[in-house]
Amino acid sequence: MYEFNYHRPGSVDEAVGLISEDAKILAGGQSLLPTMKLRLAQPSDMIDLAGIPGLSDISVDGSTVTIGATATHASVAASSAVAGAIPALAKLASGIGDAQVRNMGTMGGSVANADPAADYPAALVGLGATVHTNSRTVAADDFFTGIFETDLAENEIVTKVSFPVPQAAAYVKFANPASRYAIVGVFVAKTADGVRVAVTGAGGSVFRASDMEAALNGNFSASSLDGIAVASDDLNSDLHASADYRAHLVSVMAKRAVQAAGG
After folding, report:
1. Which domain holds residue 38?
2. What is the spatial distance between Cα 172 and Cα 222, in angstroms, rounded to a whole number?
3. How far apart are CA 258 and CA 185, in angstroms?
4. For the chain, what is the mean pLDDT?
5. Is residue 149 assigned to a domain?
6. What is the pLDDT of residue 1?
7. What residues form DSSP beta bridges with 49?
8. Contact 95/174 with Cβ under 8 angstroms?
9. What residue spans of the chain are helical by DSSP H?
C-alpha cells in the first residue's frame, strides 16, 4: 500500500471540501482497500466518512424507506423497520458477501462503486429508488451509467438512498460460491406505477428487462415469463458463466423472484 493522507471529517460539507483529483472517499472500504493493498490504486488522500453524524441512519416515513450512505449491510439486514416495509431489501442485504463484509461494507459505498455484480444496484433500480447526494437527487434509473461508472460528479458524495415501499417485491440471485457476488441477480417489484424488473451481474451494469415488465404488468405470475428470453449479445462472459448461460439464468431467476413476491 502506498502512503496517503488520512482525513476524518465531521460533516458532509467538510468532506466535500477535502475532495481533490487524487483523493478517495472511504465508506466501508470493501472494494477500495483491497485495490490499495495490491497497489492498483494510489490515492493522495483518504476521506473517511465514518465519523459524520447521521450518515448511517435508517428510517421509515410513510411509504418511503431511507437508508444513510454509511449504513452497513448488516444494519440494513437487521433493521426491523426495513424488514417490515421492504422485506426483500433486508433479505438482499443479508446475502451480501460474508459476515465480515456485511459488518464493514456500506450501502453508499456499494452504490457509488457500481460493481456490475453487486446486489444493491438491482434493488435501487428495481424499486425505483432515489439517490441523494450533497447537492442533488438522482433517479436510480439514471444513476448507474456503466461498469464501475455512475452519474456522480467529482465533488459529489452519496448521502442517502430513499426507496418507495412496493406492493410486493423479491430478489433472487445465482451467487458465486466464493464471493457471493451475483453471477445473475433479479429484483422484481410490483409498484403502484407498474412492475419493475432489474437485473444485475449479467451485463456491464444493472439494467431493466422491459419485455418481462410488460408481461408481468398484464399478469403478475411466473408463468407470464414463459418464452421470454434476454438476448445474450451484450451480456458478460467469463470463467464463471458464459453470456448464453447468464441469459438463461436471467429467465430462471426472474421466475423465482416473481414466485417469491407472490406471483
Report:
1. 1-48
2. 13
3. 13
4. 96
5. no
6. 85
7. none
8. no
9. 12-18, 32-37, 73-78, 80-85, 87-94, 99-104, 107-113, 120-127, 140-143, 210-218, 243-260
Residue 241 has pLDDT above 80, yes or no: yes
Q: Lowest-confidence range among 28-32, 95-99, 110-114, 190-194?
A: 28-32
Phi, psi of 35 (to 5 degrees): -70, -35
What pLDDT is recorded for position 134?
A: 97
Q: Could you please report the per-residue DSSP string of 204-222?
A: SS-EE-HHHHHHHHH--SG
- Any domain includes 227: yes
User: For the chain, how many helices (H) and strands (E)?
Assistant: 11, 14
**Cα–Cα distance for residue pair 132/219, rounded to 1 Å:** 33
Q: Position 226: which residue type?
A: D
137-139 and 130-133 strand pairing? antiparallel
Question: Residue 263: pLDDT band by 50, 70, 90 thresholds?
Answer: confident
What digits encode the pLDDT tens for the residues 14-66?
Answer: 999 999 989 999 999 888 998 999 999 899 999 999 999 999 999 999 899 99
38-47, 116-125, 135-144, 193-202: segment of lowest average pLDDT: 38-47
C-alpha distance from residue 53 to each of 11, 18, 46, 122 (Å)? 7, 17, 18, 28
Asked if the structure places residue 118 within a domain, the reply is no
Total residues belonging to the chain:
263
**Parallel, antiparallel, or unpaired for β 45-48 and 5-7?**
parallel
Query: How many domains does the chain divide into?
Result: 2
* Rounded distance between C-alpha atoms, residue 95 and residue 122, angstroms: 13
19 assigned to some structural domain: yes
Q: Which residue in the block uniquely carries the three cell numbers 456490475?
A: 116
We report the CATH number of the domain holding residue 17 as: 3.30.43.10
CATH of the domain at 246: 3.30.390.50
